[in-house]
Amino acid sequence: MTFPAIIFSFFLAALFGSFLHLWRGGRLFRLVLYLSLSWIGFFGGHFLAQSLSIRFIVVGTINLGFGILGSLLFLALGYWLSLLDIQDT
After folding, report:
1. Distance between CA atoms of 41 and 72, rounded to whole angstroms?
2. How many structural domains comprise the chain?
3. Quick one: which of 81, 83, 8, 19 has its CA closest to 42?
4. Which helix (H) or strand (E) holds 37?
5. 21 within a domain of the structure (yes/no)
6. What's the predicted TM-score (pTM) here?
């Protein structure tokens, strides 16, 4: 990945995390959680597709398709897990 591709990927993943926070709301912790999960999912999906030699919506040096899928998967999982209520027993 080139440096401009990394910067573009960070902005794109941050866009997904920010939209989820805008849609579902929450405090600053949730925004940081959504941004982190989106970045991890995007780069995880990109590197998974790259290591398996899968080409799905490739833009330059970015596996955009798997990056978006990874980002959305991590965001959905993180949102679902953040809804769990931890009770002290």
Report:
1. 7
2. 1
3. 8
4. helix 28-51
5. yes
6. 0.86
